[in-house]
Amino acid sequence: MTKTAFLRPRSAPVEPLESLAGLLREWLPRQRWFAGKDRPVTDLSLLSMTELFPDCLHVLVHAGHGGVPAPGGDPPAGDCYQLLLGVREHPSPRLGRALIGRVQNGPLAGRTVYDALYDPRSAQLLLERLRHPGTAGPLRFECHAGQPLPTGLVPRLLDAEQSNSSLVYGDEYILKVFRRIQPGVNPDLEVPGALARQGCHRVPAPVAWFRTTDPFKATLGVLQPYLRDASDGWTLALGALAAGDDFTAQAHALGRATADVHLALASAFPVGEPGEMRRTATAMTERLTAAAHAVPALQPFVPGLRTAFAALTACDAGPPAQRIHGDLHLGQVLRAGREWFVIDFEGEPSRPLSERRSTHSPVRDIAGMLRSFDYAARQRRPWRPEWAWRCREAYCAGYASRAGWDPRKKHGLLRAYETDRAVYEVLYEARHRPDWLPVPMAAIERLAVRGD
Ligand SMILES: Nc1ncnc2c1ncn2[C@@H]1O[C@H](COP(=O)(O)OP(=O)(O)O)[C@@H](O)[C@H]1O
Ligand SMILES: O=P(O)(O)O[C@H]1O[C@H](CO)[C@@H](O[C@H]2O[C@H](CO)[C@@H](O)[C@H](O)[C@H]2O)[C@H](O)[C@H]1O
Fold first, then answer.
1. Helix 248-268 crosses helix 385-403 at what angle (to 10 degrees)?
2. How far is CA 8 from CA 2, 76, 218, 332, in A?
3. Which residue of 48, 227, 265, 297 lies most exposed, with the fewest beta carbons within 10 A?
4. Maltokinase N-terminal cap domain location, by residue (predicted)?
């Protein structure tokens, strides 16, 4: 089947469920994980619907942001989302944020629909499905043989600002339910699985997962061990800043952990040639042009930023391209005991899956973390650029001590990747958290004007 056919919404179930689709059209854009916030939802189609257990439907919807495609043409612009919907005649009166609405007509008429991930009973039944591998319609539930999952774990939905939704079971496991679904294996299953086979202890290994085969093959969710008593790097960094504590020892250890993960990735997956600099520069420049179109505040800085990309053509190619994390920042690293762990290998959520699963320069991850130190240092006044600078030095030194090459000696590459990352962040903040826009914009100004 072609990609076009994969993505074309099937119209059959839509008619009788028009009323449900109407409710979802209102509810979906208000969700934190909804990716299309900058564009109106022009059409919403139900792609698949499976009764997962009584009163709970597994649903894939396509939210369109454009016209209906011509027969045989490209799929409509838009995204596919995964929902678990509770549908009850007499739901609990305490649905709160989970409430979606009451269906007026069609086969579900009179039922109240809600986000079933908020419902502990549904969350428990979902874990039961993973405990007993098997199928439900197009859904496949799978787990590692020889790793039986315990019963009776109490679920809670994480309240974090997330791109997906995560359920923690009894502080033993965490199930990430992917929200935006694209055809293919999700790197957040693929990469931790491959790293576990390499014996890399820095990444929690998947123990169970579920996927679909219709309307296309895709990963839907992954269960991993939950790192109890862990704190994420962002919380730790802000704590250190508030207390006036030094963070360089942690940053150095984080650099070592990043290099360990990169080395394991380079063993687990094929390694490419060092990136061809002209092509990298062109891709970065194209991303800048698109971002400046979407966020006009970027426009005055475009000529200055382009020099960082143009300078790439004079750089030596740097380390070979390889699989990387793809969206590395302080929120993606957890400190448990005396060790750093790395989570969330999905890559930058807005990029196509094929791009996220291809090889890139490891400098891209390093740049992501360096940008994160800068984000942390700008969380409260007075800004602490020297704090970010010390973390940067320590992180790169830690990386070099393991990887055998020092990111600071790749100045041109690092500057280009930091610029590219800051451009991505401007777009991300403009779409999701406009109040945060000044943080990457300050970096844009610095990179465009001073180039450091
Ligand atoms: N294995 C884990 N152990 C402990 N906490 C975790 C684990 N995996 C994720 N988390 C927590 O869940 C949050 C969201 O996870 P993440 O994978 O970043 O989801 P998303 O893709 O939705 O952003 C993290 O910030 C972290 O606090
Ligand atoms: O964790 P996600 O995969 O959802 O990543 C997205 O959201 C991040 C914010 O939650 C965003 O990260 C940006 O903000 C962080 C502070 O909240 C900062 O530490 C990062 O450096 C900065 O990029 C990330 O870009 C986005 O992909």
1. 40
2. 10, 7, 15, 34
3. 297
4. 27-119
* pTM for the structure as a whole: 0.92
What ipTM was estimated for this complex? 0.98
Asked if 304 and 409 count as a contact pair (C-beta separation under 8 A), the reply is no
Atom of ligand 2 nearest to the CA of 368: 21
Residues 422 and 440 sit within 8 Å (Cβ to Cβ) = yes
Q: What stretches of 297-426 adopt beta strand conformation (E)? A: 333-336, 339-342
Using CA atoms of 255, 258, 260, 263 in order, give the dihedral in degrees to the nearest 10: -120
Structure tokens at 388: 């970010």
Q: Which atom of ligand 2 is nearest to the CA of 371?
A: 21
pLDDT at 2 over 50: no
Question: What span, in angstroms and rounded, lies between the C-alpha atoms of 233 and 290?
Answer: 31
Ligand 2 is surrounded, with C-beta below 6 A, by: 161-163, 234, 327, 329-331, 344, 348-349, 371-372, 375, 425, 428
| Residues 160 and 221: beta-carbon distance below 8 Å | no
Nearest CA to ligand 1 atom 22: 164
Alpha carbon distance 35, 326 (integer Å): 18
The rounded percent of the chain whose pLDDT value lies above 70 is 94
pLDDT at 76: 62
Instruction: For 52-119, give the DSSP string.
Output: EETTEEEEEEEEESSPPPPTTSPPPSEEEEEEEEEEESS--TT-GGGEEEE--SSTTTT-EEEEGGG-
What confidence score (pLDDT) does residue 160 get? 80
Give the ligand 2 atom nearest the CA of 372: 21
User: Distance from the CA of 334 to the center of ligand 1, in angstroms?
Assistant: 9
